[in-house]
Amino acid sequence: MSEPSVDQLLGALSEAAELGAGRVPTDELEQVRRIAERAGERRALSSEHTVVGFFGATGSGKSSLMNALAGEPIARTHVGRPTTSVPLAAVWNPRGASALLDWLQVGDRRVMEVPFAAGQDLSLILLDLPDFDSVALDHRAIAERLAGQVDVLVWVVDPQKYADAVIHRDFIAPLATHASVTAAVLNQVDRLPPGEVEQVVDSLRGLLRRDGLERVQVLPVSATEGTGVDALRALIARFAAERKAASQRLSADVRSIAGRLEAAGVPGKMRGADVQQLERGLSRAANVDAVAQAVADSYRKRAGQVTGWPLTAWLLRLAPDPLRRLHLALGRDRGRDAEVHRTGMPPMNAAQRAQAGLAVRAYADAAAAGLGDGWAAAIHEHAADALEALPSELDRAVARTDLGARGSWWWPLLAAIQWLALLVAVIGGVWLLLPIVLPLWGMVAPAIPQFEGTETWLDGWPIPLVGLLGGVLVGILLGLIGAAIGGAVGAARRARARRRLRKQVGAVALESVVLPIEGERERARQFAVALARASGRKR
User: Fold this and answer.
1) Which of 28, 88, 101, 325 has CA atoms 20 to 30 A from the CA of 507?
2) Rounded CA separation 526/13 (Å)
3) Pairing of strands 108-111, 217-220
4) How do beta strands 124-128 and 217-220 pair?
5) Rounded distance, CA 384 to CA 280, Å?
6) CA dihedral 205, 207, 212, 215 (to 10 degrees)
7) What angle do CA 399, 402, 405 make, to 5 degrees?
């Protein structure tokens, strides 16, 4: 598979920066902006020229090395100074190089007439740079700036300072991702006994590996004696001939900042148990169990009013209906606008708010696991916003739930039998009173018929008395049966109402908590994918 182009890497990095706005440190996003800006500027300049910078500490022999490669003492004016104070450029094929050198802010330029490498017409710029350990801060600033601009970095060290911790920590290690455009030169090897050169070279290789530069070529060189100069010339000529160094440098810049941005992390997988715990917590905060119990109590009360013994059932009407007290009695049966309606439930108390807060924060903590501080803060900000809106949203969810508070088909059936039994009892009672009342008015009292010939215990009982007692007993028995059925059906209604309420609470949890937080996690995933592409990897 072909390597991604600089355009592709920059596009991925820009996408990551856009996704990470407000989530990753501002200074890192500013680095992304600078890299994108620098890449655009470099690509607008000469693509023919390869810019090679020599970086090193005081006394490492950069100027001597420059003279050896140029074949003439172009850096002579710098020899008498303790350090190189301004960058010096040696230019091969100057056409188109001026704008590039202006961008590099290099004013001291030498146009070379002799080809850099025999038989090759190379467009090349070599830069002799100020010492990066100079006591003059402006010298170090120049070296640091150009370390971020040149196409190829050549680290020049000497046998005395090659292991200097400052060189490796402050300069070489931060650019470890640029191994493809980096070379290391151990200069002044003529000062070492011949038998120690390879040992020092191996030691320098080990230090570079520790810095993260695994495959950087280390060349032993003596600028004064010419040892290794041809090998260094050949290496630089290869960079110039391939004309890939500028693109490789830009790609390395993108990969470097992408690698630092990846500290933002990758979201972990959410468990179903996390959502269930959130829904349970919000259900407790919304008093789902209390509302479901009110459904059962209301059903039993209204069932008793309809199917109870008519002489006592009216007493149930004196007690308030549990659902009507909550403005929930009719549910959605009468076309009420449940989206704007509010229940009559009291506002959430401190305990309920604490339950909602614990549930939402626990979900946010689980969702933020594995993410950096910026992403975790954004998730917890969504959680805080949700907590502000949840009391009214949960109240609305309860209000729009069809609680199944309607009556049942058996109510009128039992009620009809109740009234029939009551009618029989009344007729029986009146009939029994007639022999007592009618004579008082001078009227003939009717005879009271009795049960005869039934061969049961009813034989000899007055029929009106049986009707009276039977009507009362049937009414009471039907009331008890109705109460039992009402309790059983009420319990079933309570369970059904609880399921429906929890479903509505789950919808609120999804809309107010889960989706906003999952949107943030998806943004973090896209950020990670964009970073992976910017790093040149698949994800």
Assistant:
1) 325
2) 12
3) unpaired
4) unpaired
5) 18
6) 0
7) 105
Q: What is the pTM of this model?
A: 0.74
Residue 109, beta-bridge partner list:
89
Structure tokens, 220: 């032993």
C-alpha pair distances (Å), 408 with each of 306, 318, 415, 422: 10, 22, 12, 22
- Please state, in angstroms and as integers, the Cα–Cα distance from residue 297 to each residue in 399, 402, 403, 497, following that order: 18, 16, 13, 12
Among all chains, which residue has been given the structure tokens 């008793």?
Answer: 304
**217 forms bridges with which residues in the sheet?**
183
**Structure tokens, 18:** 């856009």
Say if CB 179 and CB 52 are below 8 A apart: no
Helix or strand run (H / E) with residue 245? helix 245-261
Each residue's pLDDT expressed in tens, for the chain with a length of 539 residues:
567 788 888 888 888 888 888 888 888 888 888 888 888 899 899 889 999 999 988 888 888 999 999 988 887 544 444 446 789 999 999 999 999 999 999 999 999 999 999 888 999 999 999 888 776 778 888 988 999 999 999 999 999 888 888 888 888 988 888 889 999 999 999 999 988 999 999 999 999 999 988 889 999 999 989 999 999 999 999 999 998 999 989 988 888 888 777 666 777 788 889 999 999 999 999 889 989 998 999 889 989 889 888 888 888 888 888 888 777 754 444 444 544 455 666 677 888 889 999 999 999 999 998 888 888 999 999 999 999 988 889 888 888 888 888 888 888 999 999 999 999 999 988 988 888 888 888 787 778 888 777 777 777 788 888 888 989 999 999 999 999 999 999 999 999 999 999 999 999 999 999 999 999 999 988 888 888 888 876 55
Least Cα distance to 524 among 346, 327, 336, 369 occurs for 369
Pairing between strand 124-128 and 88-92? antiparallel
Q: Tokens standing for 273?
A: 């148990």
Separation in Å, CA 132 to CA 31, 170, 225, 337: 21, 10, 25, 74
Q: What sign results for the dihedral spanned by CA atoms 32, 38, 39, 41?
A: positive
